[in-house]
Amino acid sequence: MPWPSPADLGTIQGLINSRAGEQLTMLGPGKGKVNVGLRAGAVDLARQIVDAYGAAVDVTVGLFSYPGGVLVNNACAIPWTLADHPGLRATVEMASSRIVSGTTFDPTVRIADVGTGTLTLQTSSSLQVYLFLPGGAKPVGAFELTVAGGGRSVYVEPGKSITLPGYGGTASCDLSLGYALRPGRYQARALVDFAPGPEGGNGPLVFWGDPFDVEVVPPTS
């Protein structure tokens, strides 16, 4: 169905809200335009909105502006302090290793105590799982939605493990891989925070879990 002709900003915002639905990550008034945030897989929808309303809208798809392709949310940048923890090992568990491009996914993160003593973790209530190119050193895919989480203390005994819920997404941090990661082979790794960082530092101490091979597949029509 064609989009209605341009009107006042309030009407445009209402039309986008009614049509974009679950593809929206953000919608609200800006300076003389409507700010529209869309999921990473919503490039076609973004094109329709921009074609219909041009300068009246400021559109973001995933982590990039559309159509400019400027990174506006570097969700793949890790602002915390990376540190080794030889007593812990984290692995990603998923019901399926296939992830549809443009979607999010809900893994489980298993944290094992591979040392000789009981460990106490000051960690998050849920952990983000990022996507890497095979053998890559930095993430290329992340979760683009806002997460409201909390912290918790957990105990892991020697030779045992616990599980925490995880969350991940296919929003690309490298536009050469698409707004949503293009289909292909990737590796999923959990970022585990395990202790407060040093005073005056840049956040908690974190380590990367082991890589888990996944395949990003095209969306079904």
What features would you describe in this structure?
This protein is about 10% helix and about 40% strand. With about 220 residues, the protein is mainly beta. The chain has two domains: about 10-65, 2-Layer Sandwich (Alpha-Beta Plaits), CATH 3.30.70; about 80-215, Sandwich (Immunoglobulin-like). Strands 5, 6, 7, 8, 9, 11, 14, 16, 17 and 18 form a ten-stranded mixed β-sheet that branches. Helix 2 links the parallel strand 2 and strand 3. The longest helix has 12 residues, at about 10-20. The two termini are about 15 Å apart.
User: What is the CATH topology assignment of the largest domain?
Assistant: Immunoglobulin-like
Shape: elongated
How many strand elements? 18
Helix-residue proportion: 10-25%
Spatial extent as radius of gyration: 20 Å
In a nutshell, what does this entry contain?
The chain is mainly beta and 221 residues long. 10% of the residues lie in helices and 41% in strands.
Question: How is the topology of this model organized?
Answer:
Blueprint: H1 9-20, E1 24-29, E2 34-38, H2 43-53, E3 57-61, E4 64-66, E5 81-82, E6 88-93, E7 98-100, E8 104-105, E9 108-113, E10 119-124, E11 127-132, E12 141-142, E13 151-156, E14 161-169, E15 171-172, E16 184-195, E17 205-208, E18 212-217
Parallel strand pairs: 2-3, 5-17, 7-18, 11-14
Antiparallel strand pairs: 1-2, 3-4, 6-9, 8-14, 9-14, 10-13, 11-16, 12-15, 16-17, 16-18
Keywords:
mainly beta; about 220 residues; ten-stranded mixed sheet; Immunoglobulin-like; four-stranded mixed sheet
